[in-house]
Task: inverse folding
């Protein structure tokens, strides 16, 4: 499996060496393009999963159940078991830090809220989810451990940026593999919905959440 950081370094090096043919090099490096999977492809990914634990299977089912159904909402959180009746109804964005703050829009989830909600669906209480997964991408980073891209498996997290050093981030959950590459479910601001996508240039760091780490006992 490819290493994203090494691919990015290769592209930058080529651009530095051959500035006069930048357009050609960008085309050659375009194999890492971000792509949203179709509903048929998502079903194909889920059907191809083998050897999952009960927790991984429940997590995949939960993640997929919201694809295309819940809009992005800055600061949107939920610990509802199953469908949250507030979703898709108008609500004011009260969390600071977004151009949508203070506006009224259909209620949904943000990227980290989607992750926490998904783990509630596998049997964690809201209190347990807050402790071992956390609310917000920073806490979810801190409650997970770094892994290699070649070790990614269902249930692992992918982040856009590394902490510390960034004020914002984006997170997704691996739900399986498509054409040999991991794909991630996430609540996307850009798509204004829950989607499943390839890694592309969105996700750069992968980590294993606390519930899937080896027991210390």
Result:
């Amino acid at each position: 499996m490819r290493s994203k950081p090494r691919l990015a370094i290769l592209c930058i090096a080529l651009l530095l060496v051959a500035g006069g043919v930048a357009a050609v090099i960008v085309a050659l490096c375009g194999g890492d393009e971000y792509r949203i999977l179709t509903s048929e492809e998502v079903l194909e990914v889920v059907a191809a999963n083998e050897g999952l634990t009960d927790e991984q299977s429940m997590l995949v089912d939960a993640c997929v159940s919201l694809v295309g159904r819940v809009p992005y909402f800055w600061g949107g959180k939920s610990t509802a078991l199953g469908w949250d009746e507030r979703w898709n109804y108008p609500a004011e964005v009260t969390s600071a830090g977004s151009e949508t703050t203070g506006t009224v829009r259909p209620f949904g989830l943000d990227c980290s809220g989607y992750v926490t909600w998904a783990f509630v669906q596998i049997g964690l209480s809201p209190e347990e989810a807050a402790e071992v997964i956390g609310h917000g991408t920073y806490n979810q980073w801190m409650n997970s451990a770094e892994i290699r891209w070649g070790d990614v498996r269902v249930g692992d997290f992918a982040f856009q940026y590394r902490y510390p050093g960034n004020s914002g981030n984006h997170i997704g959950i691996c739900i399986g593999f498509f054409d040999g590459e991991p794909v991630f479910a996430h609540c996307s601001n850009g798509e204004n919905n829950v989607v499943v996508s390839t890694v592309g240039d969105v996700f750069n760091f992968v980590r294993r959440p606390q519930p899937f780490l080896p027991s210390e006992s």
